[in-house]
Amino acid sequence: MHRLKDINWNHLYGFYEVARAQSLKEAAASLNIAPSTLSEQLKKLEERFTKKLFKRSSKGLILTSDGQVLFEHSRVIFEEGSRVLEKFSDDDIGGYPVNIGIEETISYDLAVEFSSQYWDNYAPFGTVNTLRQVEHEVLIDNLLQDNIDWGISLRKPKRKSLNSAEIGSFEIVFCCSEELFHMFKDVKDLMINIPFAESTWDKTLNKAIYQHMSKNGVNPKEKIYSDHPDFIKNLCLRGRCIMFMVKNPLREYPGLITFDLGEPLKVSLHAIWKRKDESLISIKKLEELIHSKFSQLPERYEDVEFQVELSDVSDKLLK
Fold it and tell me: Which stretches of 88-135 are DSSP H helices?
């Protein structure tokens, strides 16, 4: 076999469906062909590759090591094929996983909750993965290179080929030890004279915080940097620095006092996607969640049976 045309792609797709179902009978039913026909196709595919692709067990068909390698490659082929079909069809096809890029920031709560609700929206069509993006520019590059399907960032995109919408916002507060806080008459003097701690990776948020402090006449004499939140929190509790955090009204911070500079600092999160992908069900479901104002939980959000049904789990496997 020297060229792509030498392979029977129907046989390869049949292999892909059998590998996914781990059952010849179930795969044949989904393909609407007889199990004997599918079995013959698998035999011919094994002869073409001169590899054994499956071994039988009491639980069904199990991939051999060669079969596992072929399945991983064929999965990429047919998942991408599903995307192509959607772009050139009016049908909502799905059948491919969605990769969400989430910009690394101090608050993952909102991004994670939004992504979790997106799972329930998209679940009938495929699965959802999340990937950490160290900064906005990296997220945009990965989006344009199709390494992710859409992303969540602190900033709106500037490129006309991209679309975005705000999905929510969170409030940033400053904090220090109780003893240190009560030593100063004015919080501005506190922030100017005590070292201010920031993370080295949250560049977008750092910029917003310094703009907010500058607007309020605060310019710390000394700054410290750390990638380890526990290190900064430990220093803060001992009165060695001031730090910032996401305000959580449901949480208490023993030993620390939170404060602001007269007006709250709110930071928005934005969902970003490619305009050319708006015909895909993956982006339609994203826009559907955005337009719902992200205000209500999906109807079956805490229903475990929902995923069992979507995964077509046989009743004989359940208690």
Answer: 109-122
